[in-house]
Amino acid sequence: MKGFLKFLTISAAAVALIAGITTGSARRAYAQDNNDADTEAGSWSAPGAGSADEATTPDSKAPPIPLAECWEGDVSDKADGLGSIVFEFIQDGNKITKPDSGVDAGWSDQAFFEGPISGKVTSKGITFKGNAGKGCPFHGSGKGDDVELGGKITFGGKCAKFFKHVRFSISPTTCE
Questions:
Q1: Do the beta carbons of residue 92 and residue 103 sit within 8 Å?
Q2: CATH number at residue 154
Q3: pLDDT tens for residues 157-173?
Q4: Residue of 5, 69, 73, 152 with fewest CB within 10 Å of its CB?
Q5: pLDDT tens digits, 95-140
């Protein structure tokens, strides 16, 4: 009888274990769970994402800002205060090309800088670098769109002593 009770206990445990496995919590089935599934079959959706075909198109990168040739606006500097700045951009796709692209800034206290620039254009803004003469390299960036760009310029070399915290805000204008 002792052996029969032991057999019965083990059998009951086995039945309970099997019942737990087959009636356990259900898990969601995903298309990727089927190893035999066609990798191109299926679909998906998310608010604002459009269709799966639109999301997988290789040309999902936004085009660069179309820069008008001339942009003008305000420039400020820690020591010199508020002045004016003009950028002339020659754009080739996503590039700002030298030697025809440049920047010219001036303040009422006779401080100024000018020089050619080169750089990159994205859908969100620009990055550029240039030189305002020997020992006066600079680089800058601006964010915005085809109506307004705002950013900063950082100087190196001798000019870094004089031009500090240079900020600009520019908009397209006609070239003179």
A1: no
A2: 2.40.128.120
A3: 999 999 999 999 999 99
A4: 5
A5: 999 889 999 999 999 999 999 999 999 999 999 999 999 999 999 9
